[in-house]
Amino acid sequence: MTALAMSEKSQADLEEGTTCAPRFDANGLITAVVTDAKSGELLMVAHMNREALDKTIASGEAWYYSRSRKALWKKGETSGHVQRVVEMRVDCDQDAIWLKVEQQGAGACHTGRRSCFYRAVPLGKSGAVTLEFCGEKIFNPAKVYK
Amino acid sequence: MTALAMSEKSQADLEEGTTCAPRFDANGLITAVVTDAKSGELLMVAHMNREALDKTIASGEAWYYSRSRKALWKKGETSGHVQRVVEMRVDCDQDAIWLKVEQQGAGACHTGRRSCFYRAVPLGKSGAVTLEFCGEKIFNPAKVYK
Q: What are phi and psi of A11, to 5 degrees?
């Protein structure tokens, strides 16, 4: 089998196969997109290493890897804002994971909001862009993250 | 101002400010999460460089950067499956972008499906995991990508 044929076979397996073969990046991480299972709202984008992915699959609760703290991290371990995973999907080339979750507690964002995506970027402009707030604070992070 | 105070100020600006200051990674890229503006379905995850982001903001149509082809890329330039951006948001630490789009044409995925996330990862298991298909092919990619 030529290298090209091998490569094409691998791509077909990756995209049309049933083997879960997540492609972690050079830092051993994969992107996780987290939406609210009921409303569909995008709550956050985070990263998982192999261990975080395995723990999430096994437990049905979301685990991530914090790039800033360089540590495995269970969502809600400090705040109590645990995410119960209702459904997990993988994308075509298996370098991204989609979690549909039931968000326990007030919200997913450490700033005190339901979603991390609380600012809109106006469209149709060039040059400097001013963000527009569209998500309210619903809890006090100083009280939740001690 | 100490380094710590500066760092805290920067984080506050990043998270609570109105200045759009996207944080591109070491490769000059930022993650873009793309959902269907009507159904809320997660369509795809892609990457943008500075130019793709600027073109998307200015034109209201989605541009990305292909890591495999190492090239700027307008979604739909080959397939006709253009994405009209209805709303754009940025997350708390400004390293991810959320696009709510009207997907023109049949679908967003190059495999011929509406969404790239057409396989589910079963939960509650440990060890090898078998993916379950949950998204149908709705167009023939060989005819669309010529």
A: -65, -40
> Are B118 and B134 within 8 A, CB to CB?
yes
Q: Residues A115-134: pLDDT tens digits? A: 999 999 999 987 789 999 99
d(CA A65, CA A45) in angstroms, rounded, equals 12
Considering only residues 29 to 58 of chain A, which have any Cβ-Cβ distance to chain B shorter than 8 Å?
Answer: 31, 33, 35, 39-42, 44-45, 54, 57-58
pLDDT digits (tens, 9 = 90+) for B10-67: 889 999 999 999 999 999 999 999 999 999 999 999 999 999 999 999 999 999 999 9
User: Of B133, B8, B138, B20, which Cα lies nearest the Cα of A128?
Assistant: B20
On whether any CB of chain B is under 8 Å from the CB of A127, the answer is no
Domain A20-144 = CATH 3.30.950.10: no
Question: What is the rounded CA–CA span in Å between residue A41 and residue A102?
Answer: 11
Question: Residue A125: which of B33, B58, B93 has the nearest Cβ?
Answer: B58
Query: Which of B10, B84, B116 to probe the A interface (max A CBs under 10 A)?
Result: B116
Q: Quick one: which of A105, A129, A107 has its CA closest to A119?
A: A129
Architecture of the domain whose range is B20-109? Roll (3.10)
What value of ipTM does the predicted structure carry? 0.92
Name the residue of chain A whose CA is nearest to B41's CA. A40
